[in-house]
Amino acid sequence: MAILVVGAGFAGTVLAERAAFAGKQVVVLDRRTHIAGNAYDHPDEHGVLVHRYGPHIFHTNAPHVADYLSRFTAWRDYEHRVLASVEGELYPIPINRITINRLYGMNLSEEEAAAYLDKVREPRDPIRTSEDVVLSSVGRDLCDKFFRNYTRKQWGMDLSELAALVAARIPTRSNDDDRYFTDSFQKMPRDGFTRMFQNMLDHPNIRVELGTDFKEVDRSHFEHIFYSGPIDEYFDHRFGKLPYRSLSFQHEHLQDQQQFQPVGTVNYPNDFAFTRITEFKHLTGQTHTGTSIVREYPQAEGDPYYPVPSEQNQQLYKQYQALADAETSTTFVGRLAQYRYLNMDQVVAQALVVAERHGLGSVREPEPAGSAA
Asked: Smallest Cα–Cα separation from 37: which of 63, 71, 14?
């Protein structure tokens, strides 16, 4: 009997590749008409490589994850930088010494910038909400200028209504490091994410069926199911729907314009209905006479992107988790199946652990013959 993998994003594709490499026959389903999940990229009608579902930047501190994916792609160096548009000017985000000096017309050293942040922060004890996190980190003025309204657009909620873990992911620096991430491995797949996924799924033991819904499949034909879709959907929303925040993407091509903005992404915390604009040529290094950008508009309805972190939603998820734990023939893996935000490398690492637990091999095994480079 074959193994069924539901979802052709990172979680499902890693498990499919590992299972195939271990000699299993694998069927991969995805209701979308393409592989690679939200990391899907493709040339737009003008020939610019774009990310359909917003920017995906690969970064990790896990060497085994980088080594594993390197079997299926070559890389190009890329360190993501983000600016925030505040009062008509662009400032580095995460907040650093340059941000503070430019915003307030100061010339602080690193030590003085650290002292300034100590002075303006508003310690909160206990830390319960994202507002507590931000105020205790950067104080009220920086909070209101860079975070409060961005959060309101992104989540449809105020910082004071959001769980602390949302803002806990945002660092603050007193030095001049303007990289958005500080991971030891920061690169982009040289030929794009979709090509990397194609290489991972290019195995005689793998059959991919796109535009296919899991509900339409006879599960009795499979010895095991790896499921990376929404956990509440698997159980027919028995306890009600788990809330997600969605996005609408407005793609635009600008002809005869080499560059639209100075960095890959510019955040708009206070102006406009969108939260950010990404220009893809920064990410890909592509040369083209024009450029392509995307604006992101958060919304309540649509494809599920971000689990809404609240105590009530976690309690609802735990009811579904109890059902999932009782399943013997299905393993739930990935963002949607676990109702939590995970970076791409975290999903890969998790899928590799799941594969090893199911006897599908270890990433310490030798590189498969004929793997892509």
From this structure: 14
Q: How far apart are CA 31 and CA 27, in angstroms?
A: 13
Nearest CA to 11 out of 255, 268, 354 is that of 354
Cα gap 135→124, rounded to integer Å = 8
Phi, psi of 104 (to 5 degrees): -110, 5
Q: Angle, to 10 degrees, between the axis of helix 97-104 and the axis of helix 110-120?
A: 70
The tens digit of pLDDT for each residue in 256-288 reads 999 999 999 999 999 999 999 999 999 999 999
Q: Which domains does the chain have, with CATH numbers?
A: 2-55+190-241+306-357 (3.40.50.720), 82-168 (no CATH)
Q: With residue 298 as reference, give the H or E element that holds it.
A: strand 291-299
Residue pLDDT, tens place only, 209-253: 999 999 999 999 999 999 999 999 999 999 999 999 999 999 999
Q: How far is CA 252 from CA 19, 228, 291, in A?
A: 39, 31, 9
* H/E run at residue 42: strand 41-43
Distance CA 97, CA 138 (A): 12
Cα 158 from Cα 156, distance rounded (Å): 7
Looking at residue 298, its amino acid is: P
Does the N-terminal peptide bond of residue 94 adopt cis geometry, omega within 30 degrees of 0? Answer: yes
d(C-alpha 40, C-alpha 210), whole Å: 14
Label residue 27 exposed, middle or buried (CB < 10 Å: 0-12, 13-18, 19+). buried
| Residue in this structure with the two tokens 């890959």, named with its chain if needed | 264
- Asked whether 128 and 95 are in contact (CB, 8 A), the reply is no
Cα–Cα distance measured from residue 307 to residue 321, given in angstroms and rounded to the nearest whole number: 15
pLDDT tens column, 27-49: 999 999 999 999 999 999 999 99
Q: Output the six-digit token pair for 284.
A: 């890909």
pTM: 0.94
- Summarised one tens digit per residue, pLDDT across range 102-152 is 999 999 999 999 999 999 999 999 999 999 999 999 999 999 999 999 999
Alpha helices by DSSP H, the chain? 10-21, 63-69, 97-104, 110-120, 130-143, 149-155, 164-168, 193-201, 231-234, 280-284, 311-326, 335-338, 344-357
